[in-house]
Amino acid sequence: MSIIKEFRAFAVRGNVIELAVAVVLGGAFGRIVTAVVEGLVMPVVAALTPGGTWREWSVTPLGLKVGSVLGATIDFLVVALVVFLVVNKLLARKGPVVVTSKTCQECLEVIPLAARRCRACGEAVLQAA
Ligand SMILES: [Zn+2]
After folding, report:
1. Neighbours of 28 (CB within 10 A)
2. Torsions phi, psi of 13, nearest 5?
3. Alpha carbon 80 to chain centroid distance?
4. Ligand 1 centre and the CA of 108: distance in Å?
């Protein structure tokens, strides 16, 4: 098999294309999350946390940046809470999860539920009831 055919088989096989789409969408969604956090959440956090220069607080004589670590930790906890609330409450699945795939008993490849033959190993598989 030529290297191009092997590469095509690698790229088409499995969920590489779906994964690439997910990465692109994830990157785009990440920018939305960043914008929401910076534009809507952080002003509230800034209003609720003490003002001043505590984020620049460092422990001398080593210059350990304790304030920076503390601030980043608080920021992370707030962002994690917001993402949790959005995912858990707003995007919660409604109704039962629909199964659309099954696993080949011979090679353990994930294949469509209606498949009668495994696309990876060519073995006949049981038809779903
Ligand atoms: Zn198989």
Report:
1. 9
2. -65, 150
3. 13
4. 6
∠ CA 69-75-80, nearest 5°, is 125
Report the separation in Å between the CA atom of 115 and the middle of ligand 1, taken as the mean of its atom positions.
Answer: 11
Contact 77, 45 (CB under 8 A): no
Q: Ligand 1: distance of its center to the CA of 16 in Å?
A: 18
Residues 12 and 25 in one domain: yes
Structure tokens at 46: 């800034």
Instruction: Note down the domain range covering 105.
Output: 97-129
Quick one: 16 and 56 in the same domain?
A: no
Q: Do 19 and 39 lie in a common domain? A: yes
Q: At what angle do helices 16-36 and 66-85 cross, to 10 degrees?
A: 110
Q: How many domains does the chain have?
A: 3
pTM (2 d.p.): 0.37
Mean pLDDT by 10 residues, the chain (129 residues): 80 74 84 80 74 69 77 80 77 71 91 91 81
